[in-house]
Design brief:
Layout: H1 9-18, H2 23-37, H3 44-63, H4 71-85
């Protein structure tokens, strides 16, 4: 593993303590740190597209074009169809 030098003693302490954590926890922390260092800001075009999509979905619900189903029913449907499509 590559060695990195940190000047700040507190940072070095945090790093050393983090390296003692289980691998999956270190991976999760790494993802969080990476995402916090590279914040994703949607463009106005993307935000406008999402607003339009949400407005369309609300209109579909209010008009009766689509039927909302309870979460438990949706999850049961997904579990059944996913288990049928998984290789055995």
């Amino acid at each position: 593993m590559a060695t990195t030098t940190f000047d700040d003693a507190e940072v070095q302490d945090i790093l050393q303590r983090a390296l003692q954590l289980p691998a999956q926890v270190r991976k999760d922390i790494a993802v969080e740190l990476f995402e916090s260092a590279t914040p994703r800001e949607d463009s106005e075009e993307v935000k406008d597209a999402w607003r339009a999509e949400l407005a369309r979905r609300v209109a579909d619900i209010e008009s009766g074009k689509v039927r909302m189903i309870p979460r438990a029913e949706a999850m049961a449907y997904l579990r059944q169809h996913l288990s049928e499509s998984l290789p055995r």
